[in-house]
Amino acid sequence: MTTSHPLWSGPGPHITLAKNEVHVWRASLEASERVYSILQRVLSTDEYGVATRFYFERDRRRWTIAHGILRMLLALYLDVDPSKLQFVTNDYGKPAIASPPGGKHLQFNLSHSGDLALYAFAYDRQVGIDVERIRDNIEYEELARSHFSPSEYTMLQTLPLLIRKEAFFLCWSRKEAYIKAKGKGLSIPLDQFDMSLTPGEPATLLASREEPQARERWSVQALAPGTSYVGALVVEGVGWQLRCWQWQREGSAPPG
């Protein structure tokens, strides 16, 4: 697996997703009123209803922007009207495109935290992505004790205290991306597989007790979304190439 440089490039006028590629997009969830209005208009009635249920305006805007951008990006790859896209979900809630145009089996995944969103796209291979803002207001030691595998928790405890919080979020993002890629959510117990977590070392699925052949089936890639954020990408298979793009808030939205 190779990475194009520089990371988070501005896209050209034409984006092509090859069969052996995985595209990851980064987007800010801050938008002008013009762009926000455009993104709001492409949402379905159900999506608009979800957005209105958020208590805080900030959360409502971020959810709307994140899901509006998802529709814009899917439309870019599928050459369709973003407002016409329809989704179905599996038994565990993972979305897919209903009746994809041209029979294109475009797999996708979205994650957002704070004011950043990450999106993953690939043809004919499952993908999962996660972004986490490194926060101070959580009891990460207790969360690790409750949700990490014994091996992961032991690894975390052996690290210097100075890097332990970052290690926690690295591991958490990799675990989230893995269960999202598999499309089974929290029906997969988080303590049934082990991820690497030491900052500066490669992201790796070390072991899986719920799928013995998982290490041969799934690839893990660390992402660097920005200052105070960590991210992870999990992809089905090997031999794929990663390309990273930055969604341009004004330039990527069609005229309103």
What is the topological layout?
Elements: E1 2-3, E2 21-28, H1 33-41, H2 45-52, H3 57-78, E3 87-89, E4 95-97, E5 106-113, E6 116-123, E7 127-133, H4 140-147, H5 150-158, H6 161-182, E8 193-195, E9 205-208, H7 214-217, E10 218-223, E11 229-236, E12 241-246
Parallel strand pairs: 1-12, 2-12
Antiparallel strand pairs: 2-6, 3-4, 5-6, 7-11, 8-9, 10-11
Helix pairs in contact: 1-3, 2-3
Structure, explained:
This protein folds into 2 domains: about 1-125 and about 240-245, Ribosomal Protein L22, Chain A, CATH 3.90.470.20; about 135-235, Ribosomal Protein L22, Chain A (Alpha-Beta Complex). About 30% of the residues lie in helices and about 25% in strands. The protein contains 7 helices and 12 strands. Strands 1-12-2-6-5 form a 5-stranded mixed sheet, with helices on one face. Strand 10 (about 220-225) and strand 11 form a beta hairpin. Mean pLDDT is about 90; it is low at about 1-5 and about 250-255.
